[in-house]
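Incident review: delayed structure delivery

Summary: a single-chain prediction request sat in the queue longer than the usual turnaround. Root cause was a stuck worker, restarted by the on-call engineer. No data loss occurred. The affected request and its eventual output are reproduced below so the record is complete for anyone auditing the incident later.

Affected input:
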Amino acid sequence: MKIQMMTLSCVLIGALALTACDSKQKTAETTPPTAEEAGGEKAAAPSGAAGKPFSVQADAASVTVGADGKASLSIKPGAGFKVNEEYPWKATFADAKGVELTNKEFAKDTWKLSPKGADLEIPLKASEAGEHTLTAKLNFSVCNDEKCEVVRDHEVTMKVAAK
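Output delivered after worker restart:
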């Protein structure tokens, strides 16, 4: 009788352990990490959301076909925020018809960063006359005293007029 009770106890304990493990796996698969678990950073609001903690300005460029030119891009932190100069800033440009970029990826060291803003100059050359559009995805971060907003793949477009 004691052997049967011990066997039954072991089976019950084993079943409970498996159920608990299975329950934890489901929770881990469906529950996203908290901001603290993800490194203390919170993803930024979508680009169309009101109250963004930043603004992006992509100035239109005017260039002569075949001559070296440049476009510029600026990011300004919102009220109470500052540029996170520790974050690995990056801009990645897509191919654009009629415009040649000497570099399609701009890492942190190519940005001019200060607490009040971030500026990037994009060297380019137009290969044909007309209106062209450059598209880039930006990765950057702005912070206040309470949190850092990490922005990934923020899409921006810039107009290039070539004569």
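Verification: Residues 1-49 have pLDDT under 50 and may be disordered.
Action items: add queue-age alerting; document worker restart procedure.
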